[in-house]
Amino acid sequence: MKMMQTEIKKGMNEEEIDLFVKEALTELNLKEKVHLMSGNGFIKYIFIDRGLFKRAIPSGGVDRLGIPTFRFTDGPRGVIIPGSTCFPVSMARAATWDINLEEQVGNVIGKEVRAHGGNLFGGVCINILRHPAGGRAQESYGEDPFLLGEFGAALVRGVQQNNVMATIKHFAVNDQENARFKINVELDERTLREVYLPHFKRCVEEGCATVMSAYNKVRGEYCGHNSYLLRRILKDEWGFKGFVHSDWFRGLRDTLKGINGGLDVEMPRAKYYGKKLLKLVKSEQVPIDLIDDAARRIIRTTLKFTTKNDPIEYVKSMIGCKEHVSVARNVAEKSMVLLKNEDLILPLDIKKLKKLAVIGRLADLNNTGDHGSSNVRQDNIITPLRGIKDLMDSQIEIVYQDGVDLHTTINCVKDANAVVIVVGCSYKDEGEYIKLINITMGGDRDNLGLRNQDIQLINSVSEVNENVIVILIGGSAIMMEEWKNNVKGIIMAWYSGMEGGKALADILFGNINPSGKLPFTIPKDPVHLPYFDKNADEIEYGYYHGYTLFEKENIEPAFPFGFGLSYTSFLYENLQVNSNDNEIISSVEVKNTGIHKGDEIVQLYIGFENSEIDRPIKLLKGFSRVSLEPNETKKVTLKVKKSNLAWYNPQSKKWEIENIMYSVYIGGSSEVKDLLKDNLEF
Ligand code: BGC
């Protein structure tokens, strides 16, 4: 064995790593390089160690040169390995609009990945919510590319603070589930660049280590073979220096197409790479340069993370520890969205409350989200019923019915002072689509409203009790027109993680003032949504969806993007808009005009007044979360880079900034009546 002149050691800088990699590429034989390019621990882990989901799965690595393995585990609602902290799903986290908190979530996840022995987190899911039926909506951060980019970047930052490689997925245009292995998405260049890719670019700029290619096809080519996406855009245009790995099992289907397309690693085992790849290189059908480029990316990225000095020591006792669980609770508290509060039914006044009825098949169910690859194995879940009982049992009478028998339920709620009905979705209605011999889990939603049985329950209970509050569980928009007007309160509570029940109880009884805002639009009627076919072989995605579509077509939604009520009220005044060469700088004064302390999410949208091209009415370009005591006023300043206002000109193939009148809107939701407006020309 030839000795390497450069050695792997802690604290290596990038130059030293590059030197090592250069030398390693001359030292490694072809078989070793190809070995780096596929997952290799998986089969052993399932069949010998019976360890699927129980620990991180090692891949890559060459012992002879001390090149470490990368050890994969999944997310995003925490680390999927048993005992980890189970957070609210990403969609709930987006509803906090709190990127510092998301970074904290990432930091906890990073610590737990390390404590479990992993060093690669495959759970930064940033696919856009194009349509609420999309099965994996809960794993992502909503319908807006800017919000998605900021949240993805925050999660990447937090995870990577612990020298864990973060994977962003699924690259790209992966927005529906049942047909994920076969669907071909057609879209024009502007739509691709402006709607489906900006959030990926944002995370690459943040320094994410790895990218997972998607299963679906884009413009006729599987994403794992797609050189336009992987080589041209990701690696060449954006300068991504990390490695690309496939989604599992069916993310790669052809050796030559994969390697030519720019896929560096096949996961989780060598089916098309490994021996087949070796053969193609030996027969000179694949140039060695392509192998060297992939090997360089893999060794370089792995070393960059594994040689960095750790900020702390990672020990098993960190996993699911008190401090981490309290972050999950904080997120749950900030994520719930108060959608309706007629007659100020909430917060419940315990002085007037003797008997509270808690109803519904989801009220006492461990229901933290899908049962696919994002399932965090955590047994200690506080359900809504348990949260309410733990907080209130000694003070009021609490009765519970699952609502299946309507007659018993009606009798039970008749004399209650208020009724909390918990309904919505579970892993049976939505999530990663998994079809094994006899079971089907998850998939795209068939029904965008509640089940008939739940609607009947709400409407029947409302007939005998006028103080009904509906708690919705789910990962995206739930339609409410059949029952919305019959109830006084509605809270979107999401899949709210292991502490969700506590957070919900605190909100119901006013210990916490709700502050979440919707990261998507809730329609009144599904006909207002873009075309969706869960079994499609081919589909065309247009430029507009979500609030940009509703605004362009002047359709009133049931609840607009960015909407959420509070127990207090906020007044916006004194909008000021200035600009310099690079930025628009806007400020506004926000005052808490109610009697409760509260958090407001200040949103900034930019409109394109006299554009000559087809542009959205307005786009989210900034936001900030602010805490205010009653009567307190704070000045909030939001900056928008002018480069963020560019559009992609498919003719010139360039991002261009128009010289037009831009409107700056600031306020508490995307709805015009909630926004102050000023104009700016440049
Ligand atoms: C999912 C990925 C996941 C992978 C490994 C796939 O089925 O699409 O999101 O990371 O499994 O768990």
Number of H/I helices: 18
Q: In whole angstroms, how far apart are the ends?
A: 65 Å
Q: What is the residue-averaged pLDDT? A: 96
**Structural class from helices and strands?**
alpha/beta
Number of strands: 27
CATH class descriptor name of the domain at 97-310:
Alpha Beta
Rg of Cα set? 26 Å
CATH architecture title of the domain at 97-310: Alpha-Beta Barrel
The H-level CATH homologous superfamily of the domain at 97-310, spelled out, is: Glycoside hydrolase, family 3, N-terminal domain
Strand content: 15-25%
**What is the strand arrangement across the widest sheet?**
1-2-3-4-6-9
Low-confidence stretches: none
Proportion of helical residues: 25-40%
What can be said about the biggest beta sheet?
A: 6 strands, mixed
Examine the coordinates and then state which fold CATH places here, giving the name of the CATH topology of the domain at 97-310.
TIM Barrel
Molecular shape:
globular
Which distinct ligands sit in these coordinates? beta-D-glucopyranose
